[in-house]
Design a protein that fits this description.
Layout (H helix, E strand, L loop, with lengths): L1 H10 L5 H8 L3 H14 L18 E9 L8 H8 L4 E6 L6 E7 L2 H12 L5 E8 L5 E2 L2 E2 L14
Antiparallel strand pairs: 1-3, 1-4, 2-3, 5-6
Helix pairs in contact: 2-3
């Protein structure tokens, strides 16, 4: 049940416990208890709305590639944890390939994002280089396709 519950909440975090109970064939009380347990354990860390910045153009989003030289015994964690504390940074991922960390950064303008990368990330000890890619348009995010106006993506519930 836990995996099905997580999949449903990931698809639509606003789905009611009543609907979840019907879909999963259990009681609302059991659903609420399971959600509370998932929150307490840290498996669920929050619920968020996915904004269509194509329609709401008040922020700039960039993917920033960061190359790092690691220190013995510390790996990438120390640099990644420091970068994660900046409020401009929304996501930090350790990845394989030509760079080490991938950041999702948001700002009010191109200049804000560029200044943040140049003045706060690129100057960190052990950061050997950065490459910034500005997002121009979203087509799909968190499993949601943009541009499908008016289409109800919720699961059908039959009584």
């Amino acid at each position: 049940m836990k995996q099905k519950l997580l999949a449903l909440l990931t698809k639509d975090p606003r789905i009611s416990t009543r609907s979840l109970a019907k879909i999963l064939g259990t009681s609302e009380k059991k659903i609420q208890t399971e959600i509370e347990k998932l929150l307490k354990s840290g498996e669920i860390v929050g619920f968020a709305a996915v904004l269509n910045s194509n329609e709401n153009g008040n922020e700039i989003t960039a993917m920033v590639e960061v190359r790092v030289t690691t220190q013995r015994g510390k790996g990438f964690d120390e640099v990644a944890e420091r970068i994660a504390k900046f409020p401009e940074v929304w996501n930090v991922y350790l990845i394989s390939g030509s760079h080490d960390l991938n950041l999702l950064v948001k700002g009010k303008s191109l200049a804000d994002v560029a200044n943040f990368v140049n003045r706060k990330v690129a100057v960190l000890e052990n950061v050997t280089g950065t490459t910034t890619h500005f997002l121009l348009k979203k087509y799909k995010e968190d499993g949601l396709i943009f541009g499908e106006k008016g289409r109800d993506r919720r699961l059908k519930v039959s009584a």
